Amino acid sequence: MAILVAGGAGYIGSHMVDRLIEKGQDVVVVDNLSTGHRAAVHEKARFYQGDTRDKAFLTTVFKQEKIDGVIHMDAFSLVGESMTDPLKYFDNNIYGMIVLLEVMKEQGVKYMVFSSTAATYGEPENELITETDRQEPINPYGESKLAMERMIRWADEAYGIKFVALRYFNAAGAKADGSIGEDHHPETHLIPIILQVAAGQRAELQIFGDDYKTPDGTNVRDYVHVLDLADAHMLALEYLQAGNPSQAFNLGSSTGFSNKQMLEAARKVTGKAIPAKIAPRRGGDPDSLVADSQKARKVLGWQPQYDDVEDIIRTAWAWKQSHPQGYGDK
Ligand code: NAD
Predict the structure, then answer these.
(1) Mean pLDDT of all residues in 21-46
(2) Which one of 31, 104, 142, 214 counts the least CB within 10 Å of its CB?
(3) For residue 33, which atom of ligand 1 is closest to its CA?
(4) Residues 203-213: pLDDT tens digits?
(5) Which CATH number do you get for residue 304?
(6) Which residue owns the Cα nearest ligand 1 atom 29?
(7) If you take atom 41 of ligand 1, which residue's CA is the nearest one?
(8) pLDDT above 90: residue 76
(9) Isomerase as a keyword (predicted)?
């Protein structure tokens, strides 16, 4: 039986596929390469280029392969873009999920691990966000992911498709050997942007605001290494295959890092000056966003290997140095 990674050519998806293959799993990838990279997909995975909204295409893949479970990582995920083009997000993310669930139902596939997002919570109610906190997204991206979570819950009720939704903030880092890594266009994530400055591809880092209610005044965010995320998805699938009930889990470091701390850590790891300046607040940035992941640690037995942010940055730097232009295909 194979595991289908939808979005397996993307940043997190490619690490997911790599990890599954390392563990001896049979892996099928579906990806339309809209933001992903063919070169990121492990050569041992069977790759099908196509769109999850294309039911005929997806049905062919499911008929050709014996799929036991689906790991869903194919969504658009740029918050800013979702604000200016919300329908693009609802079409790709929500409609894509409808078609995928339909095909799973028709082909009798019972397990889905869904890469959701902590953006489904919106403005945090508490310092550490727990799974039972209010979910009130403040952008269309988070809204689309919340709708997808709810859709799977009803698909479970009606068709018995068991799911785990994993809610996390910032995926970070890369495989330690630098062979795969993060290559987004445009790049909106902090670590790759800092490393672009370190590599001389960007003049300086802009830190948006230093008067937030945090110890050094800059925003505090949660970073999880991409391979720790992959492990959590694997554990979640095993949890479902063992007959456990559907539910959502947060994935996080449980200790956030401020933008200034990230900058200092990157300066240390790279040995570069990394010029930075404080710019005005962007608006819409909560002081601090950190997820409590005790439940995932307890119930799934998840134990992140990368708990030091310098180690995370070191892996991202290894990728940056070996692939200064990313995969070079966009
Ligand atoms: P990514 O853009 O690198 O990967 C998404 C992949 O899905 C790409 O390869 C893209 O080509 C593919 N894809 C998109 N729509 C598709 C469609 N309709 N049909 C087929 N393929 C399609 O993004 P990422 O950073 O790897 O994120 C992966 C998932 O994790 C997303 O669902 C995202 O919402 C979620 N997530 C990411 C982060 C993060 O920090 N990167 C945080 C929380 C959640």
Answers:
(1) 98
(2) 214
(3) 11
(4) 999 999 999 99
(5) 3.90.25.10
(6) 73
(7) 171
(8) yes
(9) yes
Distance separating the N- and C-terminal Cα atoms of the chain? 34
CA of 63 to the centre of ligand 1 (A): 24
How many Cα atoms occupy the beta-carbon half-sphere of 82 within 13 Å?
20
The β-bridge partners of 4 are: 28, 70
**Contact at 8 Å (CB) between 133 and 126?**
yes
Alpha carbon of 30 to ligand 1 centroid (Å): 12
Ligand 1 neighbours, Cβ below 6 Å, are 7, 9-13, 30-36, 51-53, 73-75, 77, 92, 96, 115, 117, 168, 170-171
Does 177 map to a domain?
Answer: no
23 with 157, same domain: the answer is yes
Whole-angstrom Cα distance, residue 286 to residue 284?
Answer: 6
* Distance of alpha carbon 93 from alpha carbon 87, whole angstroms: 10
> Which ligand 1 atom minimizes the distance to the CA of 9?
9
| 141 tagged catalytic | yes
pLDDT at 246: 98
Model confidence band, residue 260 (pLDDT cutoffs 50, 70, 90): very high
C-alpha of residue 206 to centroid of ligand 1, in Å = 25
Q: What is the DSSP letter of 199?
A: T
Domain match, 80 and 168 both:
yes
CATH number, domain at 90?
3.40.50.720
Q: Is the pLDDT of residue 102 over 90?
A: yes
Residues 96 and 23 in one domain: yes
Q: Could you tell which of 47, 73, 193, 226 is best to mutate to test the pocket of ligand 1, judged by most ligand atoms within 8 Å of the CB?
A: 73
Q: Which atom of ligand 1 lies nearest, measured to the CA of 118?
A: 43
Are 242 and 212 in a shared domain?
no
pLDDT band at 282 (very low <50, low <70, confident <90, very high): confident
* Structural domain count of the chain: 2
Classify residue 229: in a domain, yes or no.
yes
Q: At residue 283, does pLDDT exceed 80?
A: no
Atom number in ligand 1 closest to CA 75? 32
Distance CA 257, CA 326 (A): 26
Structure-token pair, residue 143: 């809204």
Selected catalytic residue, list 11, 48, 111, 141: 141
